[in-house]
What does this fold into?
Amino acid sequence: MEKFTHLDEKGKAAMVDVSEKKSTQRFAAARSIVALPQVVLEKLIGDGMQTHKGSVMQIAIIAGIMAAKKTGELIPLCHPLGLDKCDITIHFNEQKELVIDCSASVTAKTGVEMEALVGASIAALTVYDMCKSMSHDIVIKEIKLMQKTGGKNDFKRN
It folds into this structure.
């Protein structure tokens, strides 16, 4: 049976000790999906994704990358990592929802799943913030890990 890695033998919260692990190339990708009401969709598409605050997509990308870099400060027991790369792409799917993909990589003793998840999450929240003046009926539908490699167990969502 697996155990919670962030609890010690007495059940107290603890940072995982990675001192004995070897550094390896780590990669993770996460996705968030944002459903926008028609009024916001039409405005964004009609105005080329521009608002009075600036480009929704570009600001969301920058916010997501900045957040991914600060994951160790935001999630209490995460190790601080100096990311080698973080990339965010945003596009519309067939349902006219925004799909935000964040990937992160590093050579380290621990993985970058949380960095990718934080990047995708904050990019989605930034879209909400930039569009909420038109409607509060914006839904961040899901945030999920899509892939991770380089640790004990690789993972890929179908």
